[in-house]
Each structure stands twice: as structure tokens, then as C-alpha cells.
Amino acid sequence: MDPGYKRLLAGLSPLAPIETGLPESGTPAGPVKAVMFDVYGTMFVSAAGDISQADTKKNMDEVVAEIFDDLEISGIPPEGIYESLTQKIKQHHDTQKRAGVEFPEIEIDRLWQEILKTESVRLARQAALAFEIRTNPVYPMPGLTKLIETLKKKGVAAGIISNAQFYTPLLFEHFTGSLPENSWARPDLLFYSYRYGHAKPSPLLFDMAADALWKAGIKEHETIFVGNDMLNDIYPAHNRGFQTALFAGDARSLRLHEDDPRCKNLSPEMVITGLGRIADIL
To answer: Are residues 200 and 277 in the same domain?
Structure first.
């Protein structure tokens, strides 16, 4: 890992999940040959509840000033950088929606390159990572180590379907010692939104995952998808034919969307409050 990224990630501190009060329920509807995971709010405790959801209680100008000082960025005033970032994200989303992308995803490092007016991808990525760490710190969800050990021991096909950025795989390397594809996940079952320009709840990532699973001889109904958001996770996974497990282990990130018509009559096969439950069913 790049030493600059490693130094920034070393600043992450333990975070404990907040109980939701929801009881566990359900069992798999059939044999489970593969498990696909959301990341933020499921495998990682997310202080803001999800990726790129900044803690708006913080003074963003002060946050950016700290980052610029730490990374020795000069010649650009920190005031208004956060507003510029949010504006660029909106502009990108609007452009992609006009092009027919229903749920667009950005590449955050490219936007930071534009803001910093730099050709250095490394500097832009350091700034993006530093900002995310300060505004939405994360930490492994309890039970993640046991889950990974179980996945490796049993040889279960496993992967990720998640809204993510370039730093998401780095978080696994920092916390677990290796990238998912070098440890517990199949390289062909990793679907990070930033790589495809589509974010959940777009069906695209789930369609690609289903196609990859079929090539491995695994059908949708033999796969369980685990996520903390009824709309972004359970809805598209259910529509594609996956079994589903709602992760209700942290009040910060649990999203039930009870008023959304797409979720009103939607029920996951399982509700779980800890990753150990997935390890137990494998």
C-alpha cells in the first residue's frame, strides 16, 4: 500500500455499532453456495451511516484546512472547497442522468483532481481519503474476522456489491491485512460502484454479479446478499432473485425506507444483527 495512504488510514479509531432493537429472524430459503456483501454499514461500522455521507455537524472549511495543512497543499484557499465538491458531484450526477444513467456514481479522486487543479492522481487520492476519514470514519463490524475465516475455511464463493470508491479496497487491506481478492473474495465477484459509473439501487451491479455467479455454476437462489439498506440492497437483490439478509446491526446505518412503495411489501429472508449469523449458516 502507498505509504501516504497507510499514514492516513492509521488515524482511524475503533467504532462500536449502536443496537437497533430489531430482533433476528428467518433462515435461508435454501442451500447457500455464495454470499455477496454490501460494505458500508454491513461489513464496516460507518460513523455517518454510509459512504460519502459527511458529518455535517463539522465545519467543512476547518476540515479542509486541516487536510491542506497535513498534505502541504498551498495556493488554494480551503474556504468553499466542500461546496465546490458537492456542486461537482451534483453536476456529474445531472449529466449522467441526462445520458440515461438512473443512479450515477462518481469517481471521487477525479473530482478532487479538478478541485485541486492537479494532474497528480496520488495527491487527489490522498485528499479524498483524508476527507472521507475525517467526515465518515469507519471500523470493522464486530464478527468480521470470524466471518472472513469461515469464508476462507469453507471455500464459499463470496464477493461484494457496494457503493464504493477507490479507497474501499484499501480499507480492507488496512483492517484485515489484505485486499478481499487476495483473501476471501473471488476477483470476478467484486462489484464496486465507482468502477462502473452506476450506484445502487441500480440493477446493473446485481445483473453483472448474477452473470458472474452463473459462470461459476451458482444460481441466484443459491446466493444470499447481505446489506443494511432495504432500498439500495434488499430491493435490487430480491428483484434479481437472490436470497436476502437485512443487516440490522447498527442504528447509524440501518435504512428501512418504510414509506417507500418499493419497500412496503418487501421482506428479506433473514434479519440479522451480527455478521456471526452469516458465518453460522455457511
So the answer is: yes
